[in-house]
């Protein structure tokens, strides 16, 4: 006999050699005088009425329409424990990355359960808990999850559960600012575990990429209309992508950026002033030491 599992239920598998002239075989368990637990017309049998750690002795008795033969030699064994049956309950995206929720059936006498991801224990829960949330996985990545039931002096693993995590988007923010040499869109976002880089799209057009979590785009103009819309796209090794919700802000009107150059000719010293345009300006006042000296 062989102790095996059907899911998390123990099962005893019996096989024997056929007897010439036999039409049926009686299956006896723990007694040769009690009625058989079953009668079959083949030379295999699965006993599904056992419980873990029970000890049983089996006998086979051949029979036909007119006679019943003697019992076979006894075969004894102890029923093995079975591991849990693992299932994927759900997947979702958090601000910090993917969330994988797995669940399993409760087993009697367990002290605790170890949660294993790709051969590494990532958590331990008490016997009363049969659900686990993994929030430490990378996005768009394939893993194998296993739950190990731990008894005193014994352990049993579930079958591996393959899971490919979701490609999760970042959460982006945007500000329109003024900086040398002029207006720009400042984008920032949270890092997504597993992402290898981030693509930046302005109004649906690719304008740059970075492995960091911020991007300064100078391809804007003051008071641009309509307000520019940006999307940060997380790119994962599997070529999976996930787009953040689009963000849009007005690009402000920026003050002139002034540069000055001192020059001399044979008799006169002068200062040449240059500045950047300010959107909508119709006049510029030039101050020297607080007093207007020109209105070009």
Short description:
The chain is an all-beta fold and 296 residues long.
Description of the molecule:
By secondary structure, the protein is mainly beta. The protein contains no helices and 28 strands. It has strands at 2-6, 9-15, 24-29, 38-40, 44-47, 55-63, 68-71, 75-78, 86-94, 97-104, 112-117, 120-126, 131-134, 142-151, 154-157, 161-164, 172-179, 182-189, 197-202, 205-210, 214-217, 229-235, 241-243, 247-248, 258-264, 269-275, 286-288, 291-294. The strands form eight sheets. Strands 3, 4, 6, 7 and 8 form a five-stranded antiparallel beta sheet that branches. Strands 11, 12, 14, 15 and 16 form a five-stranded antiparallel beta sheet that branches. Strands 19, 20, 22, 23 and 24 form a five-stranded antiparallel beta sheet that branches. A hairpin with a 4-residue loop joins strand 6 and strand 7 (68-71). The mean pLDDT is 95.
SS summary, helix count = 0
Share in helix: under 10%
* Chain-averaged pLDDT: 95
- Secondary structure: number of strands: 28
**H/E series:** EEEEEEEEEEEEEEEEEEEEEEEEEEEE
Oligomer: single chain
Nearest-angstrom radius of gyration? 38 Å
Structural class of the secondary structure composition?
mainly beta
Strand content: over 45%
Compute the separation of the termini in Å. Answer: 103 Å
- Basic shape: rod-shaped
Q: Summarize the main sheet.
A: 5 strands, antiparallel
Provide the low-confidence segments as ranges: none
